[in-house]
């Protein structure tokens, strides 16, 4: 599984249930095929989601 680190400043918003992580929040992501499961981390917050290479 690919692990992506997000800015820790996003942690409060994500912890409150904000459902989206935008492309500009992810820095240095390797090429990822759409539909791949990823783990995202922001501070102490961790979540899992599907990567969409054609999304915002």
UniProtKB/TrEMBL annotation:
The keyword GTP-binding does not apply. It holds the Pfam family PUA_3. InterPro entries: PUA_sf, RlmI-like_PUA. Keywords: Transferase. Gene3D superfamilies: PUA domain (2.30.130.10). GO terms for molecular function: RNA binding. Residues 12-55 form the RlmI-like PUA domain. This is RlmI-like PUA domain-containing protein. It comes from marine sediment metagenome.
């Amino acid at each position: 599984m690919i692990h992506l680190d997000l800015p820790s400043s996003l942690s409060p918003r994500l912890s409150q249930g904000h459902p989206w992580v935008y492309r500009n929040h992810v820095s240095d992501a390797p090429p990822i095929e759409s539909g791949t499961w990823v783990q995202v981390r922001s501070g102490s917050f961790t979540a899992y989601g599907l990567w969409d290479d054609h999304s915002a």
